[in-house]
Amino acid sequence: MKIRDRGIIKRQAALILPEHKAIQKEINKDYFRQVKPILDEFQVEVFENKIHTAMEFASPVKFIVWEEGGDLE
Fold it and tell me: What is the pTM of this model?
C-alpha cells in the first residue's frame, strides 16, 4: 500500500481573505527588497575598464542598474 502525500497543500490555509492576501504581498515585497550597493573606487575602476574594453572591440554590454528596492536589467 502506497501512501499519497499532498505535499504543500496540507499546509495551506483553507480560506484566504483579501486582507490576508494584501498583507502577504507586502511581506513578500519587503522580504526581497535590496539595499543600495556602495561601490568603492576599485569597483568603479573595474566597471570603467570593462566598458572601455567593450567599446574598443565593439562587444555587447549588459547593464544591470540599481533601482529603489532592487536591480533592474
Answer: 0.49
